[in-house]
Amino acid sequence: MSTTHLGRIFHVAGRPEASDAAAALVWIPDGALVIDDDGVVSYCGPRDHRPTPQDGHDEVINDHGDGFLLPGFVDTHIHFPQTYSLDAYGGGQLLEWLDNCIFPAEARLADPEFATRIARDFTARRVAAGTTAAMVFGSAFPHAQDALFAETQRSGLRIVSGRGIQTVGSESSAPLLTSESDAITLTASEIDRWHAADSGDPSTALLQTAIVPRFSLSVTTETLAALGELYDGVRARGVYVHTHLNENNRPGTGEIDSVKKTFEVDAYLDTYDGRFLPGGRVGGSSLLGRRTIMAHAVHCSDTELARMAETGTSIAHCPVSQLFLGSGTMPWKRTLAAGVTVAAGTDVGAGDEWLISRVLSDAFKVHLSEPGEDSVSLHPAELLFTGTLAGARALDMEDRFGNFDVGKEADFLVIQPDRWAPLDSLLRHGIRADDDVVARDQILFALLMGLREPAITEVYVRGAQVGV
Ligand code: GUN
Ligand code: ZN
Question: Mind listing the domains of the chain with CATH numbers?
Fold first, then answer.
């Protein structure tokens, strides 16, 4: 039996680079998405041309009327233990905000009851925002991570996550710290417990794990060396690495200068790139690779970008958060020209939006506002690409989801504009172009800018509706 969803379809087809997204944009106003029993796309095209079901096969039809069908959003950087931290303010920039607002908030997950509640709410917010896949920065507490994975499995969403590793820090981070040896054993046991726990095979799993040092300032050379060794042992199982890079460049006392001073490196990226052996000696194992995502990367040198491109390491671009914490603007043209995959991240709770399209909206604004020749007006297809297919690529799962190519697992959202009046009126009255292509681009831009959670009425992963 196959299931057919009828609606207005947008997706970015094939495997384009960001700059070619407009040419790869597919718009099917009278579309059909046909999904087989395994949740795989067997047809995406005009509804009148869809193949007739073979003899003896039923076709279930879901007619979404004027609804849009979009690939599921991919959030490549979101903090689970900061679910209730969206209003955290008064902390100054990054390092003060962490000490004053975030470490105390994350310490609350030591309480198992609180951890269960926050896991439930976090997952519900993901469903509401249509974030079908996410790289989730985890809690320090293993019971909270267990609650997160269990709740995610119950919902049917995809997740990659790992406990946040901290072995050194200020007094306010004390509840989140572990010894050097616990940092490794807790991470290794989380991987054993949850990596591909749903299917036993990482190539088909919805649940996957990551090694997540919070950032260089939260760990020692000892920890980084041991994590490099751990990664050597689990890389082949498809385990990920996730952390922060080059976010705050306040001179002298900010994150980047503190990293360079603490680790005696010229480049922040070096701290993750196999520089350290136990005892601080140089020459350990690198944490970079195709399954590594660096959040922010706002202030990278050309050398750092080239190294990320060379190793296949991706960037989670989080402009909502960068505005919230005064972290600056990632140079769009220079970063993409280096050949690094750039995907979108909410960075909740430095980001105060859960919806990836809100991240794309801020990306549009901040990159248009870059000075002089650096200013760029991102095409709506490039925005859609960044929030969907680029996310799948950053997660090294582009072969599995991210668009509606035949053979992909069907992750998608149903958007009903009439459920959010401002979006409905934008689409009804704001599209002026006579030209079909210009009208298409106006519709997609209005959809991405005007979308809010109430208009996302159904969310599917691998053809199955998710829920909490
Ligand atoms: N760097 C280290 N920890 C964090 C965090 O929780 N949020 C952000 N935005 N940056 C970080
Ligand atoms: Zn973050």
Answer: 2-71+404-465 (2.30.40.10), 73-369 (3.20.20.140)
Q: What is the pLDDT of residue 267?
A: 96
Q: Which ligand ends up closest to the CA of 294? A: 2
Looking at residue 108, its pLDDT comes to: 98
Classify 322 in phi/psi space as left (phi over 0), alpha (psi -120 to 50) or beta: alpha
Distance (Å) from CA 12 to ligand 2 centroid: 27
Low-confidence ranges of the chain (pLDDT < 50): none
H or E stretch covering 9: strand 2-12
DSSP 83: T
Write out the DSSP string of 224-252: HHHHHHHHHHHGGGT-EEEEEES----TT
d(CA 204, CA 339): 28
Q: Decide: 350 and 382 in contact? Cβ < 8 Å.
A: no
Residue 244 Cα: closest atom of ligand 1: 1
Residue nearest to atom 3 of ligand 1 (CA): 214
Distance CA 209, CA 136 (A): 9
C-beta of 98 in contact with ligand 1 (< 6 A): yes
The per-residue pLDDT for 53 is: 74
Q: How many CB atoms lie within 10 A of CB 375?
A: 12
Q: Would you state the pLDDT for residue 57? A: 66
The three-state secondary structure class of 115 is helix
CA of 98 to the centre of ligand 1 (A): 7
ipTM for the assembly: 0.99
Contact 292, 285 (CB under 8 A): no
CB–CB of 387/356 below 8 Å? yes
**Whether the CB of 77 sits within 6 Å of ligand 1:** no
Measured from the CB, is residue 94 less than 6 Å from ligand 1?
yes
